[in-house]
Design brief:
Elements: H1 4-11, H2 30-36, H3 42-50, E1 57-61, H4 67-77, E2 81-86, E3 89-94, H5 104-112, E4 116-121, H6 132-138, E5 146-150, E6 156-160
Parallel strand pairs: 4-5
Antiparallel strand pairs: 1-3, 2-3, 2-4, 5-6
Helix pairs in contact: 3-4, 5-6
Length: about 160
């Protein structure tokens, strides 16, 4: 007959690979970045390095970036970012403290190429309220009703055409 500890030991199929004392660093999580000065994840650092200046643009596979990554970049840099998605890719554009260089005309072009507007970020102290320009840009995406705004604390809200 086996002892209780041997039965328990043998029943564990996947052992714990990290010691229980290990703490989560909070890197890349906007609330931790603000409260703990946690910094960016390696993936977010790569995105930031690829977007060094106002109006820098990159296209990445869909699984390499999300809106929480952009919120973390905004928390780190204090500037806005916008993301557009088409199929398995995402187009990310870096803005400045007040805007991203996407006009209704350039948004119409993105919509014609098959992109949807995933969302954009607002720097610290900014509300989650859309500007008139945000609504004008969303109006160019004929088959899209809602878009998201994220802030530096990871909060978000959606807005619609109007």
């Amino acid at each position: 007959m086996e002892s209780g500890s041997e039965i328990l030991k043998d029943s564990i199929k996947t052992p714990i690979e990290q010691p229980i004392e290990r703490q989560h660093t909070g890197k890349g999580i906007t609330s931790a970045m603000n409260k703990l000065n946690a910094g960016l994840t390696n993936r977010q650092k790569e995105l930031l390095n690829a977007l060094p200046n106002y109006d820098s643009r990159i296209t990445v596979p869909k699984n390499k970036a999300n809106m929480y990554d952009l919120a973390a970049l905004t928390a780190q840099t204090g500037v806005e970012y916008a993301m557009f998605t088409k199929g398995g890719e995402r187009l990310i554009i870096r803005g400045n403290e007040r805007k991203v260089n996407v006009t209704p005309l350039s948004a119409a072009d993105l919509a014609d190429q098959g992109y949807r507007w995933s969302g954009h970020t607002h720097p610290e102290g900014s509300s989650l309220m859309p500007s008139l320009g945000d609504v004008e840009v969303l109006n160019q995406f004929k088959n899209q009703v809602l878009c998201a705004i994220y802030n530096t604390t990871g909060d978000y809200d959606t807005f619609g055409k109007g």
